[in-house]
Amino acid sequence: MHAHPFRFAVLAVALLAIGTSLQAQGRGPGFGPGHGRGEGRGFMGLNLTEAQQAQVKAIHERHQAAFKAKGEAAQAARKAMRAAMADAGADAKTLQGLHDKVSTAQFDLMLEHRAVRQEILPLLTPEQKAQFEKRPMGLGPRGGRGRGPGAGRGMNPDCPMVKPS
């Protein structure tokens, strides 16, 4: 089976777009009010104390401006890439440069999420930390990424990767 780097890039863009839209609503992945218990989604089931919840909230608030700026940069880079992809006259060099900008913006956003995670981990008890570290980074308590209908081949019949060669 041959790996398609473009598919991976599209999936990464989609995941970041979801994260960016959640941030625009005032919540970053793993933060914000969580199902009536005041815990962030990434911390559900850890039974954070009120003091821990306040510290997590303060950390998130310190990073909020960076999340916003980096999220907007990633969104702008994705928008430019989509426009170039739709332009039949765009050459490979242009697309590569735009892809690099998308990748860099996504990486910067990922590093910001990592920085927040590294600030929060020391606040957790050993039991909470062990439970939290079992989860893949950036995912909720179940760790699933969710693959609904339409994921994978056949999602868009006009896509060149789907059409038989």
Detailed description of the structure:
By secondary structure, the protein is an all-alpha fold. The protein has four helices and no strands. It has helices spanning 5-24, 50-86, 92-120, 126-133.
Describe, in short, the structure shown.
With 165 residues, the chain is mostly helical. It contains 4 helices and no strands.
Any descriptors?
elongated; Four Helix Bundle (Hemerythrin (Met), subunit A); single chain; mainly alpha; 0% strand; 165 residues; 4 helices
- Structural class designation: mainly alpha
Radius of gyration: 18 Å
CATH class: Mainly Alpha
Provide the residue-averaged pLDDT.
74
> Could you give the order of the helices and strands?
HHHH
How many strand elements?
0
How many separate helices? Answer: 4
Shape: elongated
Provide the domain count.
1
Give the fraction of residues assigned to helices. 55-70%
Beta-strand fraction estimate: under 5%
- Uncertain segments: 23-39, 138-155
SSE topology:
Blueprint: H1 5-24, H2 50-86, H3 92-120, H4 126-133
